[in-house]
Amino acid sequence: MIDRARIDLGGFIIGRIAKEGRTFEMLLAPDRAWEAKKIIREEINKRLVDGKEKSRVSVEELLKNPKISIELVFESFIVFEDLRRGKKATDGDMEAVFDTSEGRIIACHILLDGDIQWTRTQRDEEREKKLKQIITIITKNAINPQNKKPHPYQRIEKAIEEAKVKVDLMRNAEEQVDDVLKQIRAIIPIRMEQVELALKIPSDFTAKGYNIVAQLAQIKKEEWQSDGSWVSVVSLPAGLQMELIDKLNKLTHGRVQTKLMKA
């Protein structure tokens, strides 16, 4: 009879992963799962900024992460084929896909790569937050090429609504700006205004300075000087120019050298 019954989720949400023609589902605590995904995303972004070859978080790393307790994220480590109907996954299917039937390991795969059914409140709040961030970035850094002036916030907001842009809840706002711009160009004339800067960062600050630059700009040319200083030519949105210079000045106590190459 349990196959026909529909289980009450009791405030939990379903996490699902589909691989090799099989589906695996588990129950998660929504708030703890949300926080865990944020920590995972932050770690991936940090690795990308640091230029690490491997940005992906592995199951082993997730299990060892002191900031995430898998035991608290998941209601239990029971793995289902169809959770709402109470149909459990077979050991054979789990072994065939994951080389293990251990629920704790499969839980990590779901948290890292699965599709999680977030609550409506979580989705709405995060979408609103990301949307505001995206619109703010575009407003500061894009112009109307017809009159060389920036578009007002409300115009960008309306264009996004008309284009029915979908915001990815798990990606940073900065990562989504280019995709959003491509979609709203059919609604309004718009382009990102770029500038080129030449930079020289003293040797004492190159490691942290490089990371700051990589977060905000595209490095087009770079060279290490004999004294250990780092010189480069970078391209970035015009609206981020002062933010970059301010951060480098603060880091180097005013010793960074900058020159506007092309606006």
What key phrases describe this protein's structure?
alpha+beta, Hypothetical 12.0 Kda Protein In Nam8-gar1 Intergenic Region, Chain: A, Alpha-Beta Plaits, 3 domains, 10 helices, 11 strands, globular, disordered N terminus
So, the CATH homologous superfamily of the largest domain?
Answer: Ribosome maturation protein SBDS, N-terminal domain
The backbone outline, from C-alpha atoms, is globular
CA radius of gyration is 23 Å
Q: What name is given to the CATH topology of the largest domain?
A: Hypothetical 12.0 Kda Protein In Nam8-gar1 Intergenic Region, Chain: A
Q: Helical stretch count?
A: 10
Order of strands across the widest beta sheet? 9-10-8-11
Domains, number: 3
Q: Report the count of strand segments.
A: 11
- What number is the mean pLDDT? 89
Structural class comes to: alpha+beta
Helix and strand pattern: EEHHHEEHHEHEHHEEHEEHE
Q: Catalogue the unreliable spans.
A: 1-5
Helix content class: 40-55%
What would you say the CATH architecture of the largest domain is? 2-Layer Sandwich
Classify the beta-strand content into a percent band: 15-25%
Between the first and last Cα atoms, what is the distance in angstroms? Answer: 70 Å
Per CATH, the class of the largest domain reads Alpha Beta
Please give the largest β-sheet.
4 strands, antiparallel
